[in-house]
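Database export, one record per block. Field names are fixed; values are copied verbatim from the stored entry.
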Amino acid sequence: MKAYKFWFCTGSQDLYGDECLRNVAEHSQIIVNELNKSGILPFEVVWKPTLITNELIRKTFNEANIDEDCAGVITWMHTFSPAKSWILGHQEFKKPLLHLHTQFNEEIPYDTIDMDFMNENQSAHGDREYAHILARMGIERETVVGHWSNKTVIEKIASWMRTAVGIAESSHLRVMRVADNMRNVAVTEGDKVEAQLKFGWEIDAYPVNEIAEAVAAVSQSDINALTDEYYEKYNIILEDRDPAEFRKHVEVQAGIEIGFERFLKEKNYQAIVTHFGDLGALKQLPGLAIQRLMEKGYGFGAEGDWKVAAMVRLMKIMTEGMKDAKGTSMLEDYTYNLVPGKEGILQAHMLEICPSIADGKIGIKCKPLSMGEREDPARLVFTSKEGEGIACSLIDLGHRFRLIINEVDCIKTEKEMPSLPTATNFWVPRPDFYTGCEAWLTAGGAHHTAFSYDLTSKQMVDWADAMGIESVVIGKNTNIADFKRELKLNEVYYSMKK
């Protein structure tokens, strides 16, 4: 991941003299230093000189715009700062904004407080003046309230940072479409021009045989080396297949992984889609190869689903470097368990589930696949971790986009599934199976999702807000009547917003 930084900009004015301004600068530097020392923030905070004039504010925000390492700005009004001074700067500012509503002192110094102290420590109304102009201008921002030393406050800043990086990376995201969407499928389609306008995504198509040529160009020695790595890392599940024949199938996926990755790097793409109906000269449907590429951070969508490929990439970027991360992957709603009291959804795909979500040892199987009409593809098989997660579906409604977010609880299945040759996840949607499914269907959610154990619904809502699109959350408090009302109100709001 790029070493992004976040600028810390403190607002003040020159009404109270130089000593006050020196204290403001010193206090701001202390806050920045302590935030960086906390060990909680995923990115560095950079102190900037106190902003007191229209000219300096405007100059600072424009410098932030052109600094490729700056992923966003944190603002705080230490003293009162007349908000009209911030108008031009914010009109021209294009990056994520967090308004930190704090103050330097945690407690009122009851025994010594005087008017000098009051004038210097005016966040209580300085931040209100500033927030007013942000509200009047309709500036999208995150607001965090509390003392800067509080762990919860720092964690909220850390969470926003990851969303901000997702916003920044969105404008650099390039998706390679290998072949087209599966014929006659509706939900994987979408307006690629509008996606570039809204999200900054470049979505380009390549003939499958162009990337197949890159696969064919991979040397046998490189294939052997990567296959050896597979054999060292994963369980080899032969299931009575000839070992030499089995290895040849695995070698095909090694060649695909190397060839695809070289092609993606050469063309500067961070996500890829494939389609089993258009494999050209490829000997197998990419399975193990795609799983490994996802684990390396590439986005992926099956059957031409470029929206989910882009979302998987962004969500992987947002979670990169996260301590104790449990994983992010494309998943697909495949089949239900409808036994009363044991309801849930089995998530899988033909092959392509990211091993970052695996629980325990991962194996390699080679099994026939009816789709694609190619030789038996090698794939990684495993069961997924237990725990909370979110499933996201970005859909194109024709006149606008909607991001649907379902909070889910991943659990183990009652029994093993020895005859199912694919990676699996099993979850129960919140608030319960029946309400969760009904809400998802009512909102028009897709069968492919971008899933993560490590992101929150709030982070994805914040991303959607920054992109100017609708988001709806299906969670523990969802009821169908209110949910339908929300969708209707959203339709009015986003229609008026155009």
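Remark 1: The longest strand covers residues 328-337.
Remark 2: The mean pLDDT is 96.
End of record.
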